[in-house]
Every structure is written in structure tokens, then in C-alpha cells.
TrEMBL record, chain A:
<feature type="repeat" description="WD">
    <location>
        <begin position="281"/>
        <end position="322"/>
    </location>
</feature>
<comment type="similarity">
    <text>Belongs to the WD repeat STRAP family.</text>
</comment>
<feature type="repeat" description="WD">
    <location>
        <begin position="6"/>
        <end position="47"/>
    </location>
</feature>
<dbReference type="Pfam" id="PF24805">
    <property type="entry name" value="EIF3I"/>
</dbReference>
<dbReference type="GO" id="GO:0033290">
    <property type="term" value="C:eukaryotic 48S preinitiation complex"/>
</dbReference>
<feature type="repeat" description="WD">
    <location>
        <begin position="48"/>
        <end position="89"/>
    </location>
</feature>
<dbReference type="InterPro" id="IPR001680">
    <property type="entry name" value="WD40_rpt"/>
</dbReference>
<comment type="subunit">
    <text>Component of the eukaryotic translation initiation factor 3 (eIF-3) complex.</text>
</comment>
<dbReference type="GO" id="GO:0003723">
    <property type="term" value="F:RNA binding"/>
</dbReference>
From TrEMBL, chain B:
<dbReference type="GO" id="GO:0033290">
    <property type="term" value="C:eukaryotic 48S preinitiation complex"/>
</dbReference>
<keyword id="KW-0694">RNA-binding</keyword>
<dbReference type="GO" id="GO:0003723">
    <property type="term" value="F:RNA binding"/>
</dbReference>
<comment type="subunit">
    <text>Component of the eukaryotic translation initiation factor 3 (eIF-3) complex.</text>
</comment>
<dbReference type="GO" id="GO:0003743">
    <property type="term" value="F:translation initiation factor activity"/>
</dbReference>
<dbReference type="Pfam" id="PF00076">
    <property type="entry name" value="RRM_1"/>
</dbReference>
<dbReference type="GO" id="GO:0016282">
    <property type="term" value="C:eukaryotic 43S preinitiation complex"/>
</dbReference>
<dbReference type="Pfam" id="PF08662">
    <property type="entry name" value="eIF2A"/>
</dbReference>
<dbReference type="InterPro" id="IPR034363">
    <property type="entry name" value="eIF3B_RRM"/>
</dbReference>
């Protein structure tokens, strides 16, 4: 398994996102230029220029025509995916931590940080209308967070939104009414990442409390827990195998206090059902901030603090291994 | 007395009562021991009352402060005094002084004062009229089968070893060599307030508490005995586990000279205090152990100024009623296998430094050796008492640097011959280690620990024989395995935990590895495994332990937050004779076959057990997916072989068919 190493970002990676076909990989980093790459050969296609600060989050719609990004410059931007033209900029009063398309691509959700005296909010914008004016004002605000919202995802079929916070909570929202219908605290420390399973029936959280958890989407019941000895920054569920991938490592500010091998900057594969570790993939030399499986499950991407993205195509043995 | 009643009621409400009750009792006792009763005070009339108070105050202020309302002279209806007085001091120590110094105080011709603490009175009042024999400190059950078997851990079917770790909790684990994580044997919340320890033969586990120390053991980890000694700082077991020394840092001036409380020698089986000693003054350097036991627990010796005091056990009386006078003595060590003391005296005037071996209790001098221009001497006994090594640090002529110089005593040979091994200038000796149960030793030396040399020698012949050395090694500690000639050469501390596993018999490096920042290494009692660990104090992120095989393969690794301590449980001495051991070694093959078969069977069993467990988990997951209306097929089709992209499309079609089948059912 010889990985492709994508060197384009100059600062730590913040988020990776495959498009639904799996031929494109979108990446954001703290260097203000979101980038799009071919997944087959690792070639850089282009960048989205316009942000003036670290970019925290990116999402792409289902037909790969539109991209939304959120940045620490207090803005979220809506782009034409192919040309890199910025269609619209939403300006907020605090850094944007997360952006996400609704499952039908009709809306964009933008979550802002609890910073600079502002409370954390999720704004809903209507983006499939022709009028830009209509799109520039939020049609709904989801309020009532007790800490910065770190991730927002939308259920593929239901009108439900899930958000995670730095206080370790997972909140469920009704998109129609904007009501917070359920809140559970499942981690002791911030939740850094939230991803959906392929079917959308399960969620996986990644937390600084050294663990990742799989929840049932409807009941928010914790089904599985994966324990490590490092903060977990990102977690993904394989679309084809009962495997989960965790990325993390010691906090960047603590790295110098340990030996070169001891930072545990590996990506770790766990068996979803047994909760056992089944493999580790080394290579990064900084904590991994984000991981993602390609939609076909044959590849995964990881992005780390050192500024590199690694694209791994799984070996044949990976698919042949039996864990019965 | 009402106090006691309330305390009992309160403790009944709080179920965890024992501690509270003891604490209450302690406070109460302290209160009582603060007050003294003075009897035989002149009975006087009211006009002389003031004068009497002044006189009493004057007398009793000699030993401590008496507050304005702390003196009470009771009067009857006619305002005549009753002939006694009550004085409350600020501390029990002052009250004790009053008893010691002012009892039998002649106030005038007819009145000699009697002073007692209220605690004494309390005790006298509560002494029953009829004599009852004292009950034994521990109730020995009449039925021997109900007594805990203190050796139950040695009866483990597979001969596994135990170890203790401390982090936020204190836990005892079984270590399993077949690649499964250690299994928890016992753990207890707040078991000990400081480090935990094993007794030298592993029979007891020792815990520290403000009130004293406690020992635990047996299959259920019962508390076997408590040794109440408030604010105990250190303890030491005798080699045969019969006696215990505890020390609580009490200043000798505050101690009770009649019944000292600073250092206490205890009998383990009964919990009886054999004798107390005054401790060193606070500005004196404390060398622990202060009391050193003879190998068979028959005697215990203490270094005092210019002498060694040897006490017989269990009487705790001075041997021959006098200490051994040894001018300027600096240090001594008992032989681990003979009744021999080795001690050394520094250079004084024209007399050179001397190392002397004395047989006890006869006090016969066996051997004396003079050593010239010595700054310091360290004594290392070989485990079987066959050899003694004196590592002498010498000053060079310029007195700037130190040279190491080893003198070897062959104890078991006639006249105890001595040989000398010298090390060159500039070379620092980092460590010296005897092979336990063997005739070899190793010395780590050099001018820089990151590329030190390790030299191996043998005592087997009539001369110290150089075997071989290893050079350019990051080594500052040498850890010999308990048997078989394996050794771990470790670079701890500033060398960041470099480890080399070496086979001395074959002169072969078996493995080199690193446990980053580890501070210590310890062999298990069987010599099959080594543990290395990093405590929380050294590295907050990386603390934990690793267990290695003797040839340096990592078997188990754990990172535990707040980790502080790791200790293998020691084992008692082998009961097999040398001949029996030899026979076993000869027939090792037959044993090996048997054990390998057993291991294989166990592995097989575990594998099938695990498979069943996994099947259960898989079924549960399947059930969950069905309950939310998903099928688990996507998880199964890939378990065969990798497909190409085209095939995946085909498979997707198959999936749909499968779905239909399920609906049909």
C-alpha cells in the first residue's frame, strides 16, 4: 500500500471531504485556500481563493457543482465547484466552525463559534433559489448551544439535524421547527468530528477524551465505543466493511514532550462490531486532524498537522482478512 | 463519656463507621491526655484559696502554659477545697511532662503532690475488679480451615506471577504469558495513601495510612494485621517476614523517653509492639533502613555513634548487654546467608580505612582489610553470601577526581582471601551488580554514560577472571535476571530508557529496544519477564508500563494516566534442594513437552471462546440493523476477495436479490 502524498497545503489540515462519486477530494487547512484534488492520481485541480483566515470546514453537494466553506475570518463562502468562482459570502460575528449541505442540497447549514462574546449558532440558508438576496439571509437559526458547535450533519432522508459541541454533547434538531428535540452528553471532552455511516443510520463521534463512539441516529444511543490512548480528532465508518478509522494523536502543543515514536500519529483501524484494533497505518509525523473513506471504501484519506494529505488505497490482504 | 456515646450513634448512622470511630476515640484520648489530676493538695479554707491557686499555677507552669481558666480547684459547699486540682495543658506532651517531672512533688512537709493524666484515671476507673486474662490481639480461629491460606497465590495452576500497579487506584494483576492482557485479581478504592509494597517473600501486601500501616493477604485479600503508628513514614520487613520496623519522624524531644514512639519494632504474627526507640534528631540525615535484620530473623542491628547495637529477637534486648564499640564506623551490612556483619571505618589520622567481617553473636573477627586513601566505601553482598564486594572510591593524589577500586572477599574460603580490581583514572563506575545465585558480576563504567562499557567477570576460579566486555553502550544500570545468566543493560534517566537484552552465557545480544523515559526495570520472580515503567512524575503523557520477555520481545504495553508504581510480587525461596533442581534441569525436555501441550490447549480453548463471543457480537449487531430496517449485507460480501470496480456493480445487483429473499421470509 504505497500512499499518495499530497503536498499543497502549508498549514495544518482541518477537513477532508470526498464528493459522492469519489473522484474528487476537497481539503481545507489553516492556510485559507481550500483545495480540490483528483483521487486517482493525487493531482491538484485547483484552489478556492477568497478567505482571509484558517478554513475550518468544507462540504460539496451531491452532483459536485457547488462547494461551501467556512473560515475563521468570520465568513462562509458558496462557490461554483468547477470554476472556483465565489457566488456568495455570508458574514458572521464570529469564526465559522462548520458548514454542511442538507441532504437534498436545498439548504446550507453554517455553525459559528462561541468566541468574541458571541454565542454559538447554526444558521440555515436557502441556496437552491435563483435570487442571491434570498440566499444571503438565514431562514432559520438553531440556538441554545452551551459551547461551540464543532460539526453539523443532516440525516439523508429525515428532516433531522445533528450537531456536536465542545462540551461533549450531541444535539438533535428538528429542521422544520428549529427545535432542539434531544441532547445527550456522551464525551467528557470536546467532540472533534462527526460522520455518518453510509446508510445514515449511525453516527460516529471523535473526541479529545481518547475515544470514538458509534450512535444510533434516531435514538442517539451509544452502540459501540473505541478506546485509544490519544485524543481522537477524526473518525470515519467504512462504507463496505464493518471497520472504523480513527485519526488523532497527541496535541500539537504537547508534541515536543515525547519521543519521536511515541506521538502515536498513526491512523488506526478498528473492527466496528468487536471494538478491537485491527491495524495501524503509520506515515504522518504530526497529529492527524481529519480522516475520510472514499465512497467505494477502497481508499481513505488522512490529513495531519504537518500539512500533508495521504491517500491510501487498501491492499488486497485488507479485504481478505477474516475476523471471525 | 457522653462523647463516646454520641460517636457511636453517629458511626452507626454512617455505615463506614470503623474509621470514624477510631478517629473519634483518638481525639477523645487526646483531650483526656491533655488534662492532669493533681491529688494530695492541701485542704484549705476559702481565705487561702487564692494563694493556693497561685502556688499551684507557679509549680505547674514549669512544664507548659496554663491558660487563665485551665486550673480548677474544686470546692465544697463551705467553700473549702476538696484536696485535688485539675489542670488542662495545651498539648498532651506538656501534660506528659507534668506527670514525669512533677509527680511526687513535695509541696510542703505533709503534702507530696500526685500527678496523673486524666487518661490514666479513666483507665484505672475502668479496670474491672476481677482479673481477666488478656485476649490475644488476633483471634485465631479454632478451625484451621477458616484461616486464610497466605500461600494461595503460589498454588496457581499455571504458575503465573502477580504484580501490583498504582495509578488513581491500587490494583493487583495476574500476568499471563500467553499474550492476553493481565487479569485483574484485586483492587480496592483508596487502598493505600502512599506507595504500596510487598513483603520480601511476597506473603503480604503493605499499605500506608495516616494511622499506621496495614498488611493484607490470602485469597480474599483480607486485612491481616494493623500496626498503629500515626504519620508513619517508612517501614521495613525482616527477611523472614517475622518482624517489622516502622518510623514516623517524631522529634526525640517530643517523644516519650519511657516508651519511645518514633521507631517501633513489631512482631508481625501478633501485631505486638516489641520495643520502641527514639529517632534521630531532625537535622540528622536519616539512612534507611535504620535497623538491619540478620538473615534468619534472630537478631537486628542498628548503627549508632561509634558502635553497632545488636538486639536479639524476639526479646529485643541488647546482645550481651552491650553495644559493639567500633570507633568512627560509617556503615555495615548483614550477609544475606550467614550470621556475619561487614562494616567499614574511614581513615582517621595515620590509621587507614578498614573493612571488617564479624561473626555474630560470637563477635569473632573473621577478617580485616585495610584500604588506603579512601573517600567512600559501598558494600555489596552476593545473594548467596559467597562473596562480598567493597567498592571503594579513592581520591587521586591531586584529590580532584575519584577512582573506583573493588575488593572481593571470598567468604567461604579459608582465611577469606581478598582480591583487588582497579579502575583507571577518569573512568566513572555507573553500576556494579552481582549475578544473583551465581559467581559472576558486571560493572558498567566509562567517561560518558551514553557510550559506556560493561565488563563481565567471574569468581569461579581461584582468581577474579575477566570474561569479556561490551563497549559503546548507553548503560547506567545493570539488571541481572534471578537465574540463567540473562541481563538487561539499561540506560535510564538522562539516557531516556535504552534497553539491551543480553545473554551472558552465550555472549549474545538478544535484542535492543527503548521504553521512552522509563525510570526503572524489574525482573519477575521467575526470570522470564522484565517490566519497565514510566511514572506520572516523569512524563505526564506517556506514563505506563511495558512487560518484555527475557529476550526482549514486548508482550504487553499499557499507558495509564496518573501511573506511579509497578512491583512484581516476590516469591519465597525454592523448597527444592540443589540436587532436585539439577534433576529438573536435566529432564527439561519432558517438562517442556507437557507445558507446551498445555499452552496449546489453552490457546485453542481461548480461541474458540473468543470466536463464540465474536459470533454473539455479530448476531447482536445484525439484530440491531434489522431493528432499524437496515440489512447487514454490505458488510458480508467483501469478506471473500477483493473485487474490481466492475464487479462491484454486479454485486450491488446481487444485493437487491438478497433483499427480496428476506422479504419473502
Amino acid at each position: 500500500m504505497r500512499p499518495l502524498i499530497l503536498k499543497g497545503h502549508e498549514r495544518p489540515l482541518t477537513m477532508l471531504k470526498y464528493n459522492s462519486e469519489g473522484d474528487l477530494l476537497f481539503s481545507t487547512a489553516k492556510d485559507s485556500t481550500p483545495t480540490v484534488w483528483w483521487t486517482s492520481n493525487g493531482e491538484r485541480i485547483g484552489t478556492y481563493r477568497g478567505h482571509n483566515g484558517a478554513v475550518w470546514s468544507i462540504d460539496v453537494n451531491n452532483d459536485s457543482t457547488r462547494v461551501v466553506t467556512g473560515s475563521a475570518d468570520n465568513s462562509a463562502k458558496f462557490w461554483r465547484a468547477e470554476t472556483g468562482e465565489c457566488i456568495l459570502t455570508w458574514t458572521h460575528k464570529s469564526p465559522v466552525r462548520c458548514v454542511s449541505f442538507s441532504s437534498d442540497d436545498q439548504f446550507v447549514f453554517v455553525a459559528t463559534a462561541m468566541l468574541m462574546g458571541q454565542s454559538s449558532e447554526i444558521y440555515q440558508y436557502l441556496v437552491d433559489s435563483e435570487s442571491l438576496e434570498e440566499a444571503s439571509v438565514p431562514i432559520r437559526t438553531f440556538s441554545g448551544h452551551s459551547a461551540t458547535v464543532t460539526r453539523v450533519v443532516c440525516h439523508p432522508t429525515e428532516k433531522t439535524l445533528i450537531s456536536t459541541g465542545e462540551d461533549g454533547t450531541v444535539r438533535k434538531w428538528d429542521i422544520e421547527t428549529g427545535r432542539n428535540t434531544e441532547t445527550v452528553t456522551i464525551h467528557q471532552k470536546p467532540i472533534n468530528d462527526l460522520q455518518l455511516s453510509k446508510s445514515g443510520g449511525q453516527l460516529i463521534t471523535a473526541s479529545s477524551d481518547f475515544s470514538a463512539k458509534i450512535l444510533d441516529f434516531r435514538s442517539l444511543k451509544v452502540l459501540k465505543t473505541f478506546l485509544t490512548d490519544r485524543p481522537v480528532n477524526s473518525a470515519a465508518i467504512s462504507p463496505i466493511l464493518p471497520h472504523v478509522l480513527l485519526g488523532g494523536g497527541q496535541e500539537a502543543s504537547q508534541v515536543t514532550t515525547t519521543g519521536d515514536r511515541a506521538g502515536r500519529f498513526e491512523a488506526r483501524l478498528f473492527h466496528l462490531i468487536y471494538e478491537d484494533e485491527i491495524g495501524i497505518i503509520r506515515g504522518h509525523f504530526g497529529p492527524i486532524n481529519t480522516v475520510a473513506f472514499s465512497p467505494d471504501g477502497l481508499q481513505f484519506a488522512s490529513g495531519a498537522e504537518e500539512g500533508f494529505i495521504r491517500l491510501h488505497n487498501f491492499d488486497e490482504e485488507y479485504f481478505q482478512a477474516s475476523y471471525n | 463519656m457522653s462523647l463516646a456515646v454520641t460517636s457511636r450513634n453517629a458511626s452507626e448512622l454512617l455505615k463506614d463507621s470503623q474509621f470514624l470511630e477510631e478517629e473519634q476515640k483518638r481525639i477523645e484520648q487526646r483531650e483526656l491526655s491533655r488534662a492532669v489530676i493533681v491529688s494530695n493538695v492541701p485542704k484549705i479554707t476559702v481565705d487561702k484559696y487564692e494563694k493556693l491557686c497561685t502556688v499551684l499555677r507557679k509549680v505547674f507552669q514549669q512544664v507548659g502554659n496554663i491558660g487563665s481558666d485551665a486550673l480548677w480547684v474544686p470546692q465544697d459547699e463551705n467553700k473549702d477545697t476538696k484536696g485535688f486540682a485539675l489542670i488542662t495543658y495545651d498539648t498532651p506532651e506538656e501534660a506528659l511532662k507534668a506527670v514525669l517531672q512533677l509527680n511526687e512533688y513535695p509541696l510542703d512537709k505533709n503534702h507530696t503532690l500526685q500527678v496523673k493524666t486524666l487518661l490514666d484515671i479513666e483507665r484505672i476507673v475502668h479496670t474491672s475488679e476481677t482479673f481477666e486474662p488478656p485476649s490475644l490481639p488476633i483471634e485465631i480461629p479454632t478451625d484451621p480451615s477458616s484461616r486464610p491460606n497466605l500461600f494461595s497465590w503460589l498454588l496457581d495452576e499455571r504458575g503465573r506471577d502477580q504484580f501490583m500497579i498504582r495509578h488513581e487506584e491500587t490494583e493487583i494483576y495476574w500476568f499471563d504469558s500467553l499474550g492476553i492482557p493481565p487479569q485483574l485479581e484485586y483492587s480496592r478504592m483508596n487502598w493505600t495513601e502512599a506507595d504500596g509494597y510487598w513483603s520480601p517473600r511476597g506473603t503480604y501486601f503493605v499499605t500506608f495510612h495516616i494511622q499506621g500501616i496495614a498488611i493484607w493477604g490470602g485469597p480474599k485479600w483480607e486485612r491481616l494485621m494493623r500496626f498503629p503508628h500515626s504519620h508513619v513514614k517508612k517501614f521495613d520487613f525482616s527477611p523472614c517476614e517475622n518482624y517489622l520496623v516502622t518510623w514516623n519522624d517524631l522529634d526525640p524531644e517530643r517523644d516519650n523517653p519511657k516508651d519511645p514512639e518514633c521507631i517501633i519494632i513489631w512482631e508481625v504474627a501478633t501485631g505486638r509492639k516489641l520495643r520502641g526507640f527514639l529517632g534521630p534528631k531532625h537535622d540528622e540525615k536519616v539512612a534507611w533502613p535504620m535497623f538491619k535484620f540478620q538473615y534468619k530473623d534472630e537478631m537486628v542491628a542498628r548503627l549508632v555513634e561509634n558502635a553497632i547495637s545488636v538486639y536479639t529477637l524476639p526479646e529485643m534486648t541488647l546482645l550481651d548487654k552491650r553495644s559493639m564499640k567500633i570507633p568512627y564506623i560509617r556503615d555495615f551490612q548483614w550477609s544475606p546467608a550467614d550470621s556475619i556483619i561487614a562494616y567499614w571505618q574511614p581513615e582517621v589520622g595515620n590509621n587507614p580505612a578498614k573493612v571488617t567481617l564479624v561473626e555474630m553473636p560470637s563477635r569473632k573477627e573473621l577478617r580485616q582489610k585495610a584500604v588506603y586513601s579512601v573517600a567512600d566505601i559501598e558494600l555489596y553482598w552476593q545473594q548467596n553470601g559467597k562473596y562480598l564486594c567493597c567498592k571503594a572510591s579513592r581520591l587521586t593524589k591531586s584529590k580532584k577526581s575519584r577512582l573506583a577500586n573493588f575488593e572481593f572477599f571470598r567468604i567461604r574460603q579459608k582465611e577469606i582471601p581478598v582480591e583487588v580490581l582497579e579502575y583507571k583514572e577518569k573512568e566513572v563506575v555507573y553500576d556494579f551488580a552481582w549475578e544473583p545465585d551465581g559467581d559472576r558480576f558486571a560493572i558498567a563504567y566509562g567517561d560518558n554514560a551514553s557510550r559506556a562499557s560493561v565488563a563481565f567477570y567471574s569468581m569461579e576460579d581461584t582468581q577474579v577472571k575477566y570474561l569479556f566486555s561490551l563497549t559503546q553502550r548507553p548503560v547506567n544500570r545493570i539488571f541481572w535476571a534471578p537465574q540463567n545468566g540473562f541481563v538487561v543493560l539499561a540506560g535510564l534517566g538522562s539516557l531516556n530508557g535504552q534497553l539491551e537484552f543480553y545473554n551472558v552465557n552465550e555472549q549474545e545480544s538478544m535484542n535492543q529496544s527503548e521504553h521512552f523515559m522509563c525510570t526503572n526495570a524489574e525482573w519477575d520472580a521467575s526470570g522470564r519477564f522484565v517490566a519497565t515503567w514510566v511514572p506520572y512524575s516523569r512524563n505526564k503523557m506517556e506514563c505506563g508500563y511495558i512487560i518484555w520477555t527475557f529476550y526482549g520481545k514486548e508482550v504487553y504495553q499499557a499507558t495509564i494516566s496518573m501511573f506511579s508504581q509497578f512491583l512484581w510480587r516476590p516469591r519465597p525461596e525454592w523448597l527444592l534442594s540443589k540436587e532436585q533442581q539439577k534433576k529438573i534441569k536435566k529432564n527439561l525436555k519432558s517438562y517442556r513437552e507437557r507445558y507446551e501441550r498445555e499452552d496449546q490447549e489453552l490457546k485453542e480453548m481461548r480461541r474458540s471462546g473468543k470466536a463464540a463471543e465474536r459470533k454473539k457480537l455479530r448476531d447482536a449487531w445484525k439484530q440491531y440493523l434489522q431493528s432499524i430496517g437496515e440489512d447487514d449485507k454490505p458488510f458480508q460480501w467483501m469478506s471473500g476477495k477483493k473485487e474490481t470496480t466492475e464487479e462491484i456493480v454486479e454485486i450491488t445487483e446481487e444485493l437487491l436479490e438478497f433483499k427480496e429473499e428476506i422479504i419473502d421470509k
